[in-house]
Amino acid sequence: MKKFIYAVAALFFTAGASAQQNVSILVHDQATDGQIIPKEIYGQFAEHLGSCIYGGLWVGQESDIPNTDGYRNDVLEALKELKVPVMRWPGGCFADEYHWRDGIGPREDRPRMVNSNWGGTVEDNSFGTHEFLNLCEMIGCEPYISGNVGSGTVEELAKWVEYMTAPDGPMAKLRAENGRTEPWKVKYLGVGNESWGCGGNMVPEYYSFLYNRYQTYCRNYGDNRLYKVASGASDYDYNWTEVLMKNIGGRMDGVSLHYYTVKGWNGSKGSATQFDEQEYYNTLGKAVEIESVIRKHIAIMEQYDPDNNIDLLLDEWGTWFDVEPGTNPGHLYQQNTMRDAMVAALSFNIFHKYTERLKMANIAQIANVLQSMVLTRGEKMVLTPTYHVFRMYNVHQDAVYIPVEVPEIRATDSNGRPYPLLDATASKASDGVLNITLTNTSLTEDAEMTICLDTAVKGKVHGEILTSADIQDHNDFDSPDVVRPMQFKDFKIRNGKLTITLPAKSIVSLCVCP
Ligand code: AHR
Q1: pLDDT at 4 over 70
Q2: Smallest CA separation from ligand 1 atom 6, residue
Q3: Confidence at residue 6, expressed as pLDDT on a 0 to 100 scale
Q4: What is the domain-level CATH number for residue 335?
Q5: Are residues 225 and 373 in the same domain?
Q6: Per the structure, how many domains does the chain have?
Q7: For ligand 1, which residues put their CB under 6 angstroms from it?
Q8: How many whole angstroms separate alpha carbon 459 and alpha carbon 168?
Q9: How far is the CA of 317 from the centre of ligand 1 (A)?
Q10: Catalytic site residues?
Q11: What is the mean pLDDT of the chain?
């Protein structure tokens, strides 16, 4: 796709500066060469970590918590509403210690293990391959299996693929004995996770040779076609991507990348809810730095793969703060505020621009871990502000990317990193509906803006807004609706243009009917 490149005057402010009045945004809704925004950009990640699986997704059939075959009903409903396109499992770091045979057969016979990565919790393996793949079928998403390279064998991974996908043969027979005759469809297969760290502390040369060997024996059975993903770089490790591109090349369909919005890996990462203005803007600065990281990895990939056959998959991203006081430090349970919602919105706006190469993103994680969609405690569940952003943005899934010109009104955080005060993204759905999503990151200033399309606005316009009184606002079990989307009506259509007041710290979606 030809990318629209605009020369727009960049205005810079110091941190926290006000947004602009009378801003004009141009939405090129008649552009015809738009890339489809792959729905997989809105992917999820579920790891055996803390209460992501146990208590978050799964409570077991015997539980008093309302469930369907062991899956929590409230979470199932919430996930269906999100239109989850793909879910990565069982880790993360857990994946390279996971032995799939421990998680099949009668649950009472399944061996236990210590989850040594995550708090030393005893894992009873009651949620295994069947439970995960059946969940994917129930909510209608693609499974993304993360295979064990760090401590598993080639044979173990090869047989797992056969167990899940072969229509007949010894593994299919074992699967049928465990209650599933039909093979599942499994497209995405990760060959290791963070192989530079918890996945085996390898150097990229060694990992890439190992990848080549492991993937050789992961076969296509019946009409199942695997899409193989190499374990990619952490953030700024461009050498890792380069070595993999050189040594693996076309033997992978995609290479992953992990990027967390984190203050630093040593010492406090800051509270998820108690933060000041400066920390808020610093979080945004770190979050949007992902754009330059994505660009640099893509530039390397382009050198080795100019025909764009290998995809970049951001299969872990999101905010990482200190755990909530009193919770297990190994369980990574954090609250989720309007700040997290801002990070999610700005991130999607960036992802949309790079979908020629960036084909998937999986937020960490789906429940009760890091920047999650839902938080659960006993029979209670709350939807997080991040959940609401995912729901508001799901109109962009598989829609045609529409270029938007937003004046670059930027500020810099206290680390010298720029972030936008105003941001926007747009797409057109197959029924012709134009969806525009706008973000005002300023804590104090509303923005008056005019939105001009290539043609005059003719049809009806519907709006929705996510905002709150304080940026630290969040939803808790006793007050679950502090941050929630509301109908938005503060816009007018004048001379075929939309004029709108975008409140401070808000995310607004406008749906323009044809
Ligand atoms: O998402 C938590 C952890 O972060 C994952 O297990 C690991 O891959 C990453 O370091």
Answers
A1: no
A2: 92
A3: 30
A4: 3.20.20.80
A5: yes
A6: 2
A7: 47, 91-93, 193-194, 316, 364-365, 370
A8: 54
A9: 9
A10: 194, 316
A11: 94
Name the pLDDT band for 91 (thresholds 50, 70, 90).
very high
Separation of alpha carbons 251 and 242, rounded Å: 15
- Asked if 337 and 446 sit in the same domain, the reply is no
Residues 282, 340 within the same domain = yes
Q: What is the pTM of this model?
A: 0.95
Q: Best of 117, 198, 260 to mutate for ligand 1, by most ligand atoms within 8 A of CB?
A: 198
238-247 helix and 204-216 helix, angle to the nearest 10 degrees = 40
Query: For 472-503, what is each residue's pLDDT tens digit?
Result: 999 999 999 999 999 999 999 988 999 999 99
SS3 280: helix
- Residue 243 makes CB contacts below 8 A (sequence gap 6+) with 204, 205, 208
What count of residues does the chain have? Answer: 514
Contacts of 373 (CB under 8 A, 6+ apart): 44, 78, 79, 82, 363, 366, 367, 383, 384, 386, 387, 390
**Cβ-based neighbour number of residue 464 at 10 Å:** 18
What is the residue whose two structure tokens read 């004029």? 499
The tokens describing 210, both together, are: 């190992």
Looking at the fold, whether 310 and 185 belong to one and the same domain comes out as yes
Measured CA to CA, the distance from residue 122 to residue 135 in angstroms comes to 23
pLDDT band (50, 70, 90) for residue 20: low
* Site to substitute for ligand 1 among 45, 53, 88, 93, most atoms within 8 A of C-beta: 93
Give me the domain span that covers residue 96. 39-398
pLDDT digits (tens, 9 = 90+) for 146-199: 999 999 999 999 999 999 999 999 999 999 999 999 999 999 999 999 999 999
Residue with tokens 């993103």: 361
Identity at 335, one-letter amino acid code: Q
Q: What is the Å distance from ligand 1's center to 168 Cα?
A: 35
**Cα 317–chain centre separation:** 6
Q: Is 432 left (phi over 0), alpha (psi -120 to 50) or beta?
A: left
